[in-house]
Amino acid sequence: MRYFLFLSLLILTQTTIGQTDSLLDYVLKVPIDYSNPKLGLTTIYYELGAIFSAKKPTVFIIADAQQFYVRKGSVKQLQNSLFDSTFNVVGIIGRNNNDDLKNSVIDDKGNINWTNAYNIFTWQQYVNDIDAIRKKLLGRNGRINLYGQSGGGLLVHQYLSVYGKFVDKAFTGAAVNYYLDSESGINHDKFWEETCDQDSTFSIRFSQLINKNYFSRDLIAMLFQRQNFFVKPDSLVYERNKLLNLLLMNDTASINDYKAKYQIKDILSFYDSPDGIPIKVRLFEFLLPLLKSFKIETYKLRPDIENLYFSSLQLIEVFNKNQIKPIQINLDHLHLLETDVFILSGRWDHTADYRSQIALASIYRNHYLFIANDNHTFISLKNGGFYNKLLIAFLKYGKQDILFANIIRNCESYRWIE
Fold first, then answer.
1. 2-182+330-414, what's its fold?
2. Residue 14 above 60 pLDDT?
3. Phi/psi zone of residue 28: left (φ > 0), alpha (ψ -120 to 50 degrees), beta?
């Protein structure tokens, strides 16, 4: 069975989901809105990869609203593929999986109250849900370890910004953080520069495409953004030119094939369903730090950022009307934490720029930064069998241990060196 995994934007991944075990899956009642207890309670789920043992360290797998690899029945497999039997592995099936909660912001005519949706599905609610499960499993002062990638990695850092004193170690891969991009003047979306530097005619032909007005801007952006997940880096420029030429020829049959191949039809259908509500809230949170300087340049394409924009239009509208009051992550006190934090970055990541990952790592007093000669999903590290070895070694031993140093030594061929 195939499930949606959103890594900045949707990417399908193969995940085999087994039957849930009554000894491993649990339900917890939590506030619908922690800042407004009068709204009552809702239900979230969490699942263990194996029978809980108080003698083992506990790691929470953190997925945000636009990631779906942590599903009911999946955590046993995730324990076996990402970790090992020496950990208690906890997967949180977040509030975005609660149908009652999603339907509560839709009226009888199918209209969505985006103000209520934002308040219910904003990152602060997820962070408090995580902490509620921590206290339920380990007690008020119980300590945990955290793992998250991409948007889930950002949620790990958001949790650390509020409840970091309860975290021994945290491991994040390609943790999206556009606040740091914005503050540092970093443009993570390097599509235009990379493509035009290698083909000087691309900008001319793109201008011709825009003038012809064959296809909508949002579809063009989505086609080129999705291409990153289906084409090897060394073939990207060739495939971008091929796609642009088909668009210029108004070859609708081929473009429809691309829409199916790149799962765009599935994504748009998903976005239009109740499941799309918490996803759009999360994508808006990604984009928010960039909004102050964002604009679409008619004859220059930024597929990653434009996709976030087109996916977040309803939230941008209520934000512009001052109907929601977003709170961004506060990084100011993170340097005080004693938590060991591993920052894994991909040099060729088109979503989480390695430069802002350097900035993120520097915030933490006890950090270890590894910039891999790899992409957003760390294909090379995973194919080499080192992704989970790094994860296990860091969470098990910490960055000062010789056993962790040995694993790092074996990974040196995967490290990017300027």
1. Rossmann fold (3.40.50)
2. no
3. beta
